[in-house]
Amino acid sequence: LRILHGLVTRFKDAEKPIQKKLENYTYKTGIHAINSIKATVSKEPKNYVEAIFKVHERFYKIVKDAFCDEPGYRAAFDNACGKFINDNAVTKAAGSSSAKLAELLAKYCDTLLRKGNKADQSYTDKKIDQIMVVFNYIHDKDVFQKFYGTMLAKRLVQQLSASDDSEALVISKLRKACGFEYSSKLQRMFQDIRISTQLLGKFKTYCGIEKYDVINDFSVMILNKNAWPFRSSPAFNLPHQIQPTYTRFTEFYMSQHSGRKLKLLHQFSKGELQMLYTEPKYTLQVSTYQMAILLLFNKVESITVNGESMTVNIKSMTVESISKEAQIKPELCRPI
């Protein structure tokens, strides 16, 4: 091919048929590659991204080595990639090409960046580079930003990120590809977590100096409302065992940031309870809603959803939904 390229460059317009052949063959190869793995894509987004990248890698090498990465050949190659990546059997089946492609790419990022991924940093960095190759061909990058931002937020709040370095690397690459404004909310989320860690350290030092008694292992994250894709929680009464610590923290925070207002996101809050009446003793990891209900049983043997003993103000949540969240069998927890 390189010899052929050297010959045809001597003749006017002789390269155009070759460029068209390159475009058509790249497109057909890409479509075939995606068709061969389309049945597995919903469960394994990784297969979709890697199939695309393999085709891209193969033909980019041809463009670079055989055709010296000349603009006409590069344009033909990019046109083919843009077509088969955004419009194929997988995206057509979903009914929205841009949304499905963006969702699959974001899901693959989520899998790669979550805890449980045993790959080393060099492997992860390599895969991030591959993801960015595919990202550059997405037609509607705002759709990807929405999916990615939601998944990033959950990873950060639930402390499921495998590596801060990898998270920062993706954000920096998105900023380089699309500009500061595109990545600003993602960057702000990442910064909020770091600032929260520093703030928590200051709060614990403050409590130590003032000799305040607070909950062991208390932690908090302060999230900027404009950057995070979360909605406020319904009204809910914190258990009295937690309220003093929260009040102390609120006072401390307001002393440093006057004019701001804190709202709790109970749906992401969690804690641990120790069961003292069993042998051996158990530690339960529960949501704040579950904690509030379980602590009621320190005073009563039974509660009703709308009764006086239900003092935590979560009437809108049913016992069935709370027990389902905890994976408790329905027959063990029935509303009265």
UniProtKB/TrEMBL annotation:
The keyword Lipid metabolism does not apply. GO terms for biological process: ubiquitin-dependent protein catabolic process. Signal peptide: none annotated. Keywords: Isopeptide bond, Ubl conjugation. The keyword Ribosomal protein does not apply. InterPro entries: Cullin (IPR045093), Cullin-like_AB (IPR059120), Cullin_homology (IPR016158), Cullin_homology_sf (IPR036317), Cullin_N (IPR001373), Cullin_repeat-like_dom_sf (IPR016159). Gene3D superfamilies: Cullin Repeats, Cullin, Chain C, Domain 2. This is Cullin family profile domain-containing protein. GO terms for molecular function: ubiquitin protein ligase binding. Belongs to the cullin family. Residues 100-336 form the Cullin family profile domain.
